[in-house]
Amino acid sequence: MASQRDVKNKIASVKNIQKITRAMEMVAAARLRRAEQRIAALRPYADAIGRMTRQAAEAAGAEAARVPLLRDHDTQENAGLLLVTGDRGLAGGFNSQIVRAGVRLSAELNEHGLSSRWYATGRRGVSSLAFRGHELIGSYTGFADRPAYSDARTIADDLIQAYVDGRVDRVEMVYNSYVSPLTQNVTRQQLLPLSRQAISGDPDQSDGQDAPTKRTPVDYEPDPEKILRRLVPDYIEISIYRALVESAAGFFGAQMTAMRSASENAGEIITDYTLQMNRARQAEITQEIMEVVAGAEGLS
Questions:
Q1: Coil, strand or helix at 115
Q2: Spatial contact of 252 and 33, defined as CB atoms under 8 Å apart
Q3: Helices 224-299 and 149-165 sit at what angle, rounded to 10 degrees?
Q4: What does the pLDDT look like over 52-81, one tens digit per residue?
């Protein structure tokens, strides 16, 4: 059995760790509230861009197929995979589930004859893919906790240029969408070519309405095709930015939950060690009593 001093040292160590995990939980909770505010402010704008893109595509009709980012390549050989992860760990399976989903998606695309070209945001995703032996075409780090729109524009520019140049024939994005501090859903989204479902889906459904409403006629100047050429890159940028913001909020929620669980586990360990220390103290007292009794019997 460990000595009383050894157990005291263990209890002190666990208490110090518990202080750290509680501090990290509170920091993550504060950052989560700010991230939730950013999501609430972004979602209406992102929905509006999507609605405008759909309406312009409907107005353009068959001419929409002339927009390069809406047109499928003649051959399908390479797929760009963008994985959105965090810069830091200590958040449970937040980062690892994105990497696993990306690897599964790569295997699925490979079955259809598509080779994967890897892109990743966040140090965890970059390091995990490198460790698995995947060559990264694009890596973007240092902003996962608080992404800016310029970061999304940089990523979008690289992906759009790769698609236009023919280096990739398809672009898929995998990220954690934020639901609550306890729930982050792994989400897959096709960025390029922009799917017909994304631009011609039911706009009323995306706006949260139950029944379709009559639209007001819109006169486009210049023509809808030119407007669509301008809107589609914006739609891709805002989609990436939304994924970055949702991932940031999801990370803080996952980290807050993980640190709370770690603090509770530390409390249980402290309780176990306290019982162990009490047993050790009782054993020492019993040993001392036995020694006193044995000495007294020796003198009698």
A1: strand
A2: no
A3: 120
A4: 888 888 888 788 778 888 888 989 999 999
Torsion of CA 133, 193, 141, 186, to 10 degrees: -80
Amino acid 2: pLDDT? 66
Q: Which residue has the tokens 């490198």?
A: 130
Domains along the chain?
Answer: 4-25+261-299 (1.10.287.80), 29-209+220-256 (3.40.1380.10)
* CB neighbour burial string for 218-253, b if at least 16 within 10 angstroms, e if fewer: eeeeeebbebbbebbeebbbbbbbbbbbbbbbbbbb
Residue 42's φ and ψ, nearest 5 degrees, are -80, -40
Instruction: Return d(Cα 5, Cα 207) in angstroms, integer.
Output: 64
What does the alpha-carbon distance between residue 78 and residue 61 come to, in Å, rounded to a whole number? 29
Structure tokens at 2: 């460990």
Rg (CA), the chain: 28
Q: Is 90 left (phi over 0), alpha (psi -120 to 50) or beta?
A: left
* Residue-wise DSSP of 73-110: PSS--EEEEEEE--S---STTHHHHHHHHHHHHHHHHH
Backbone dihedral angles phi then psi of residue 60, each to the nearest 5 degrees: -70, -30
